[in-house]
Amino acid sequence: MQDLGSAPPPPSAAEAQALTLAKALSRAEGRRKRQALLLTLPLLAFLVAVFIVPIGALLMRAVENPEVARALPRTAQALAGWDRQSEPAPAAFAAVVADLSAMPDSADAGALARRLNSEVPGSRSLVMGAYRASQDALRDPALKAEDVRARLLAMDPRWAALPYWQAIAKNASRWTPDYLLAAVDLRREAEGGIERMPEDQRVFGRILLRTFQISVVVMLTCLLLGYPLAYWLSTLPARKANVLMILVLVPFWTSILVRVAAWIVLLQREGLINKALLGLHVVAEPLALLFNRTGVIIAMTHILLPFMILPLYSVMKSVPPTYVRAAVSLGSTPLAAFVRVYVPQTYAGIGAGALLVFILSIGYYVTPALLGGADDQMLSYYIAQYTNVDVNWGMAAALGALLLGSTLALYGVYRRFARAELSLG
């Protein structure tokens, strides 16, 4: 009988060889993983530098509110305990003058004036007037707070109005939800609560709905046009299919601006399409196809159609044609066999193509801007407007975050349905 405290027997030669082989395989697998990681590091660094970091900066700018906090630190401190219902204390008037007089140049005052003017119209002239006075008449450090208040009110009585002070107090923090709230037609009250925008100011909800409507129409049009074309290509011999696929890919090799300019020539009242319709006596007068939603949808469908055809074609090539023939041989009609047997096997291509076209559509800017009217502009147009014209980076970033959130939500919904389909299959 073996002693319980004795050492276990040494492994046999076969066990030792198996253990050595397992360790060698583990080391080889570790080397392979490290080599794969080293090979992907340049791509990961590139994605972080050009994708993750810009998106992070965008999201941060959507909640950043530096203009007032940076320009009026003393005023923010003086208004910290203010009830926002009565006139601020004279110390707040003195703090405004002190902050404005400490600004190095008028550019900082201009940035502050633009930010406050977006909250309360008239703030630009109020702030710039006080800035100029702070460099001259109000710069005397011997003035008491009550004297500064009296001189400010004598210079511009609007300094006694509460909305201007409420705007300063509301934006005194460096971080704010105001831009994100405005992107969904909400705003903060003077007391800090959240409320809906007035009816005449609720614009972004309608713009987002319009963006989704146009994108859905373009997606469905691409599906209706692309599905039969992809099916036809999948039934052709490889040589003919490759030649025709080159024609499908031609739009990829042409600039979007060139294609849009071509559609302007085709769709105008004296364009080729209207002339052809008039010549064939299909219409009695030229159709309005340009600078409206019709032109936008036609051009976007033409540009995005290859993104629908390629996923459909790749899936259809993997579907055996014998399935439909077997269904027909068992008594089904060709149409019923196609709808009940063939189409369900292409759901993956339909979902991928529809998602790709829809996501690309909601971010379109150039085509609606050149071919659409005022009521056909999508959300990207207003992002560009805030960036290039209004120079309101916070609002542009908030709308961009809204667009990004919508895209991620749609992708999440698609992934959920795809997993559900796989589990049922």
TrEMBL record:
Keywords: Cell membrane, Membrane, Transmembrane, Transmembrane helix, Transport. It is found in: Cell membrane. Its main location: membrane. Residues 208-414 form the ABC transmembrane type-1 domain. The chain crosses the membrane at residues 36-60, 207-231, 243-266, 287-310, 322-343, 350-371, 391-414. It comes from the Bacteria. It is a multi-pass membrane protein. Pfam families: BPD_transp_1 (PF00528). This is ABC transporter permease. It comes from Azohydromonas lata. The lineage of its organism: Bacteria, Pseudomonadati, Pseudomonadota, Betaproteobacteria, Burkholderiales.
